[in-house]
Amino acid sequence: MSQLVLKQHLVDGYTINRKRLDALHAVVKVLSRSTEPEIAGTAEILERYLPSLVLLNDYDTGNVPIPKGDESQWVLTYEDAMLFIRSMPFYTQSDLFGRERNGSFQGIVAGLYQTFGGEELYRSTQEKAANLLYQVVKDHPFSDGNKRCAAALFVYFLNGNSILGDDDSPACGG
Fold it and tell me: With contact defined as beta carbons under 8 Å apart, do 135 and 122 qualify?
């Protein structure tokens, strides 16, 4: 019974939300034709935000395709990542910042290159970078500075793979 309710919610909920967004879009089109500045202005604001609402709805329902992205040229090792964290000013200013708690950070870095059936689970550099950011924030592998480390490692990883800036001016000090 609960499976039927869940299926109905997932299928019907998506349909209802999509219908509501389509109806809102139709209302906005009608409102935008108004000669009243307040109504036309409100319609203009709604028109600007509708694509975001549609994108959020598509994300919530699993309908956002993953872009192809770039193939990784550089492999981040656990040792490189820890050297990078230790080079951050926060590291020398605190006894807790960037100090690994339980060895889980090594697993996060290794997980970037995890395979299944001979295929990498995170195929593109961008997917790997996003997963690195997400896992460090979610899993809290450090005693302090998880979000700062995650953000810095995200940029460091993208820069190491030449995704940021050009070759002559690295976007990150590493």
Answer: no
Residue 164 contacts residue 80 (beta carbons within 8 Å): no
Q: Which two tokens stand for residue 34?
A: 């108004």
| β partners of residue 97 | 144
Beta-carbon contacts of 44 under 8 Å, excluding residues fewer than 6 positions away, are 32
Say if CB 33 and CB 41 are below 8 A apart: no
CA–CA dist 170, 73 (Å, integer): 15
Distance CA 8, CA 80 (A): 48
Residues contacting residue 71 through CB under 8 Å, at least 6 positions apart: 123, 124, 125
Per-10-residue mean pLDDT, the chain, length 174 = 49 59 76 82 82 78 81 95 95 90 95 95 94 95 94 97 70 46
Overall pTM surpassing 0.85 (yes/no)? no
Which of left, alpha, beta for 72 (phi over 0: left; psi -120 to 50: alpha)?
beta
CA distances from 96 to 39, 85, 112, 143, 145 (A): 55, 12, 25, 5, 8
